[in-house]
Design goal:
Order of helices and strands: HHHHH
CATH topology: Serine Threonine Protein Phosphatase 5, Tetratricopeptide repeat
Largest sheet: none
Number of helices: 5
Radius of gyration: 12 Å
CATH architecture: Alpha Horseshoe
Number of domains: 1
Helix content: over 70%
Shape: flat
CATH class: Mainly Alpha
Strand content: under 5%
Structural class: mainly alpha
Length: about 80
Amino acid sequence: MLLDEPAEEGAYRQVLEAYPDDATAPKNRSLILEKRGEFAEAAGMLEHALSTPNQTRVQYLNLIEVLLRQGLADSAQVVQ
């Protein structure tokens, strides 16, 4: 990660605006949000990544982890 998290997060936002089907930018942005304890927003970014044609297994696992960290075990169990 870059040393300047706000700049890095802004760059990921710009990528998402230009390329809404990009799956990497929301996944990477979710890592920044999770690190700051913003789990609900991180989950939203991962859900966005999973709605793209370029979804990966890592994004599913990250979403499950974020949901569990929010205490949402029932939601984590049904991630598909």
